[in-house]
Amino acid sequence: MTAQTPPVQPFRDPRLPIAKRINDLLQRLTPDERIAFLHQFAPAVDRLGVAAFRTGQEALHGVAWMGPATVFPQAVGLGATWNEDLVRRVGEAVSTEVRAMRARDDRVGLNVWSPTVNLLRHPLWGRNEEGYSEDPALTSAIATAYTRGLRGDHPTYWRTAPVLKHWLAHNNETDRSETSSSVRPRVLHEYDLRAFRSTVEAGAVAGVMPAYNLVNGRPNHVSPYLAEQLRTWTDEPLMVCSDAGAPSNLVDSEHYFDTHEEATAASLRAGVDSFTDHGTDSSTMIGRVRGALDRGLLTADDIDEAVRRQLSVRFRLGEFDPGADPYADIKDFDTPAHRALAREAAEQAIVLLKNEGGLLPLAEDTRIAVVGLLADECKLDWYSGTLIHRSTPLEGLYDRFGAGRVTFAEGVDRVRLRTAGGTYLAVPESGGSADAVRGAEGALDPALLAGRTDLPPLTTDATGTELALVDWGEGVLTFRAPDGRYLSVAEDGRVRAAADQPGGWVVQETFRLEPHENGHLLKHTGTGRYVTVAADGVKVADGNPEVFELVVAQPGEEAVAEAAAGADVVVVVAGNDPHINGRETEDRTTLALPAHQERLLRAARAVNPKTVLVLVSAYPYAVDPAELPAVLWTAHGGQAAGTALARVLAGDVSPAGRLPQTWYASDADLPDLLDYDVIGGRQTYLYFEGEPLFPFGHGLSYGTFAYGNLDARVEQRDDGGEGHLTVSFTITNTGAVTADEVAQLYVRAVAPSVPRPCRELAGHRRVTLAPGAATELTFRLPLSVLEFWDVAHGTLRLEPGSYEVLTGASSEDIRLRTTVEVEGEPLAPRPVRERGLDAADFDEQRGTEIVDRTKVSGDAVTPLGGASGELIFNGCDFGPGVTGMSVEVAGEGGGGGSVEFSLVDGPVLATLTLDTPTGDPYAYTTLRAAVSVAGVHDVHLTLRGPLRLARVGFSG
C-alpha cells in the first residue's frame, strides 16, 4: 500500500486566485486568531503553519533601525534629483537589502512604511527631510518611482509592500496629535489628495498610514476619506496601518471619544486594518477590540474585512508560496552597485544655487580651505540606517584634490566651564575614542550611543577639559570632548562624554546656557533638569544647579579666518544636524541660519572673497547670497555625500539638482505653520506672489542649454473620452561640457473664473546631453491636468478658455511659451434654490475654520476662537426667487450665536440666532427666516459666536 500525499490546503495553492486563497485561510482562523491579527505584531498560528507577521519596516532612504545598510540621500534630496529612473533604482536597492537582511534577521519586515508623500507646504515643518516636494505632481512622480522600485516588477509577487505616509494634510509637528488642519475642498482635491491619488493609481502601493493630526476637526485615523477617496482609486485591497500610539491618542490626547472601545471600533470601521500601539504587547488592543465587540460597536464582518486586507499583503509578499517567491533567496547587500548608486544619487541631488564669475568648478591646482561645523560630518537622521561607509566633505576634498591642497578648520568655539568654586568640568580618560570604535569599514560600535553607562561621569578639577561648543540656533548647544565624544546624559542622570553623535527619539546631547547671577545655569534639554556638581560626579538633578562661567579659549571664527586667509578658495559647509531644531516632533521657528554659522561665514568672507557656501540641510534657509560668488545646497546625502560634493566642486560632474520647494527670502514671507489653505494663503510656488530667494525648480549647471521649437496641440474627443495636450520642444547643449538639464513644463489658466495657480508643473524630464547635442522632448498630458475642483457643484471641472504652456529651466526661468485654446464646461452658477449651500464649499473666508459635522463624516464651519468669521459664496442662482432660508447649526455653549445673511456689499437681509446652545457640537437644529432674493448673486454670511454652521437651505 502506497502512502498518499496529504492534499494541499487551498490557501497554499498558488494556482488559485489570491482572493479565493485569502477566503480559505480566513475561514480557517478562529475569531480570537483574527482579532490577534489586528495588532502590528500578529502572532503565529502554529496549527496552520502560519508565521508571525509584523507590519512596518522603515525604509525612507535605506533600511533603517536594523543596523548597517546602504544609506542614500534623504528623501528631500531624492526629490531634488527630479529623476524618476534614479529613484526607482534606489527603491530597488533598498528593497533588495530589506530582503537580504530579512534572510538573516526575521525582525526585518517586508511591509515597508515608505515613502512619505506629505507635501512640503511649509519649510519650517520639522519633517521636511522626509518629503519630496511642495508640488503634488513632482511628489507623486518621485513617490511612484520609489514604490515601483520597492515593489519589484514581478506580476504576482512583491519584493516589499510599501505603505504611503502620512494620510492626510500633515505638515506640522507642534502639538501634532491635537491640531486640526482646516482644508477646504479645493485644497483637498487639487493639492493634498492629489499626491496620494496618482501614486495609488500607479499600482505599486500596498497601503497608507494615517497621520497623527486631525483634518477639519476629525482625527485622520477615523477619516471618511479612507473609504470615500483612497479605496475608490484602485481595485486592489489597500492595508491601512495606524501610526504608533495613534489609536490611543483618539482618547488620551485628542479626547475625541470617551472610551478606547469606541475609538477602536470607529477607526476599524473607518478603514484602519492594523493597530500600531503599545509596542510588541498586543494585549491592550486585543482587549479593546473584544470590548467593542461585546458592546455591539463592531461586528465580526468588520474584523474579517480588516484581516482580509492584511492577508492580501502577506500573499503578495510570497509568504505562503516560498517555492515560487522570486525574491526569497536575495542576498545582495552593500554591493559595489549599491555603493555606486548611493554616490550617483548624492551627485544628482546637489543643487547649484549661484555661480557668479565662473568660480566653480575649481581648478585642479586650487588651494582649498574647507571650514564649518558640517565640513567633517556625515550626518544621519532619525530614519537612517547605520553607516557602513562614510564620506564627509573634508574627506571627499582630500581624496579629490590631495591632502596637501586642502586645509581644515571646523569653527567650533573652544571653551571651558568653570564652577562657582573655581574648578572646571573635566572629562575623565575613557580608554578609547569615537574613532577607535569604528570597524574596518567605518561602522560604529553599537555600544557608542547615548545612554552608555560604562564610562566614568564628568568630574571637576583645577584645569578642566577644553570642550568644543556649537550653538545650533535657538540657544541649543552641544559640547564635545577632545576625542570626539559628545556630552550626553544617561538614564542614571550622569553627564558623560558618551555619544558619537546627537540622536535618539529624545536627544540627550543638547543643552542650554541660561543667564543666572554672574554666570549661567546649564540646562539639559532632554530631561529639562540642570547640571549639578556632586561628590559622585557631574549629573542633572532637580535641585542645587551649578552656576558656570563660560571661558572661551578660542572663538571658532579665529580658526576659520586663519584657514581662509591662506587659501585660494574657501568652502564653508553649513547646515543642520537632523536631530536638532527641526525633526520629527519638533518644527523649526525660523528660516535663518544659526548665528554661530553666520559668524563663521562672515569670518571666511571677510578675509577671502572667493567663498563658496555649501548648505547641507534637511530644509531651506534664508541666507543672503549677495556677497557670495557661489552657493550650493544638498540634503544630507548619505554615505557618499562628501565624495559627491567634491566631484561636483571639481567639475567631474555638472550639477543638475533642482529645488523641490520654494526658498523664501525671510520669515515674513511664510504663512502661519497651521494655515493649510494654500490658495487663500497664497502659499508655495503655485500661489506665492512675492519674490523668492530661489524659486521652485531652480538649479544651475556648468553647461548651457537652448530651448526651441515649442509646439503645443490640444486633442479633444467628441465621444466623452478624455482629451490630451501634447507639447514638444527641443533642448540643445550649447556649452562645452556634458551635462544634465531638467526641462520643466508648466501650464497656466489665462483668465480663470476662480483663483488658479500662477503656474503649475505639468511635466518634467532630466536629460543628459553632450556638447552640441540636441534632443526633442514630447509630453502627452491628459487634459485633466488643467482641471480644478468646482465647489459649486462638487466635481472636477475643465474650464474652457486660453491656457498658457510654458517651458524652461525653473518655475521662473521660462524660455518658451505659447497659448492653446481648450473647450470645456463653463462654470455655472450654484443652484442654491434646489441644492442649498454646504458651509465648507465657500469661495472665500475670513476668520473661520472647518470642523467635523459629525464624528463619522461631513464638514461644518465655525468662527475661529468662537468670535466672528465670514464666508463668501460666488454666483449663487436663486432662480425666479426664494422667500425663505434655513440654517443647520449646533453649539455646545458660550451663549449660542448667529448667522447673518446678506448679498455681497449689501445690507443684512436676515439674522438667524441660536438663542439656546444645543448642548452638543454634533446636535444640529434648524433656524429659519424670511428673505426675498431672485437671480444670481454673491452671498455673504457672517458667523458670530461659538456655533457650527453645516448647511444653508432656501425655499420659495
Our count of helices gives 18
CATH class of the largest domain: Alpha Beta
Shape: globular
Instruction: Pick out the low-confidence regions.
Output: 432-449
Q: How would you name the oligomeric state of the polypeptide chains in this document?
A: single chain
Could you characterize what this model shows?
- A hairpin with a 5-residue loop joins strand 19 (486-489) and strand 20.
- This protein has four domains: 29-316, TIM Barrel; 359-661, 3-Layer(aba) Sandwich (Rossmann fold), CATH 3.40.50.1700; 705-822, Immunoglobulins (Immunoglobulin-like, Sandwich), CATH 2.60.40; 832-955, Jelly Rolls, CATH 2.60.120.260.
- The strands form 14 sheets. The protein has a six-stranded mixed β-sheet, sandwiched between helices.
- The chain is an alpha+beta fold.
- It is built from 18 helices and 48 strands.
Strand and helix map with partners:
Blueprint: H1 18-28, H2 31-36, E1 41-42, E2 53-54, E3 57-58, H3 75-80, H4 84-104, E4 111-116, H5 136-151, E5 161-167, E6 180-181, H6 185-201, E7 207-210, E8 214-215, E9 218-219, H7 225-228, E10 239-240, H8 246-252, H9 260-270, H10 283-294, H11 300-316, H12 336-348, E11 351-355, E12 368-371, H13 393-401, E13 406-409, E14 413-418, E15 424-426, E16 459-461, E17 467-471, E18 477-480, E19 486-489, E20 495-499, E21 511-516, E22 519-524, E23 530-534, E24 537-541, E25 547-554, H14 556-565, E26 569-575, H15 595-607, E27 611-616, E28 630-634, H16 641-650, H17 684-687, E29 705-715, E30 724-733, E31 739-749, E32 760-769, E33 774-782, E34 788-790, E35 795-797, E36 801-808, E37 814-822, H18 832-835, E38 837-838, E39 844-846, E40 848-852, E41 859-863, E42 868-877, E43 882-890, E44 897-903, E45 908-914, E46 925-933, E47 936-944, E48 948-955
Parallel strand pairs: 3-4, 4-5, 5-7, 6-8, 7-10, 12-13, 12-26, 26-27, 27-28
Antiparallel strand pairs: 1-2, 8-9, 11-28, 14-17, 14-25, 15-16, 17-18, 19-20, 21-22, 22-25, 23-24, 29-30, 30-33, 31-32, 31-36, 34-35, 36-37, 38-48, 39-42, 40-41, 42-47, 43-46, 43-48, 44-45, 44-47
